[in-house]
Amino acid sequence: MRVHGTLTKWNDERGFGFITSAQGTGEVFVHVSAFLQGSARPQPNELVSYETEAGPNGKLRAVRVMRPGERQPIRRVSQRKPYRSRRGFNDKVAALVALAAIGAYGYSKFQVSALEAASAFVGISTPALQSEASASFQCDGRTICSQMTSCAEAEFFLKHCPNTTMDGDHDGIPCEQQWCSQ
Predict the structure, then answer these.
(1) Phi-psi region for residue 135, left (φ > 0), alpha (ψ -120 to 50) or beta?
(2) Which helix (H) or strand (E) holds 66?
């Protein structure tokens, strides 16, 4: 509730004073921060209107003090979310995408390894394995068995790359002692 009164005491050096209510209820403490920001410094015997609230010590103090002719500033509440929360969401999405990419890459490597192991166990070469191997290998100058990492890789190099020396007995099976033993 807004109350009217007079600024009866004011200490400009310390930035506080007292307002006497027009209803005669006594003096109320007022701090310079209770006046509108940017307005003129308070002067003794000035007419004011104010609201009261309990201060940190429990005593009443004047807040939102206005002089005759002043308007209360319009307070606008921002509906925009803080930047920090949007950034946190974007970071989580990026981490999730990166994790999915790493998982897909690891799964594809595991799947090729499982196919190689299954074909080695059964003793046959599957067309699916050959097509995947040819898609993932490329001729890069390696020519001997110790440079290979699997039987499928050695077979690819023997069939598609020049100057390989991986089939010593010329039976069409490369690296028989190291990778492609049946």
Answers:
(1) alpha
(2) strand 60-66
pLDDT top residue among 39 and 102? 102
Question: What number of CA atoms fall less than 13 Å from residue 162's CA on the CB side?
Answer: 0
Residue type present at position 176: E
Tokens of 7: 């600024």
pTM for this entry: 0.39
Asked if 65 and 46 count as a contact pair (C-beta separation under 8 A), the reply is: no
> What's the farthest any 2 CA atoms get from each other in the chain?
118
Helix (H) or strand (E) holding 109: helix 83-122
- Report which of residues 25 and 73 the model is more confident about: 25
Domains of the chain in sequence order: 3-66 (2.40.50.140), 84-160 (no CATH)
Q: Does 164 score more than 60 pLDDT? A: yes
As a dihedral over the C-alpha atoms of residue 145, residue 150, residue 151, residue 157, rounded to 10 degrees, the angle is: -60
| Cα torsion angle, 83, 89, 93, 96, sign | positive
Distance (Å, whole) CA 33 – CA 171 = 96
Measured in Å, how far apart are the chain's first and last C-alpha atoms?
Answer: 96
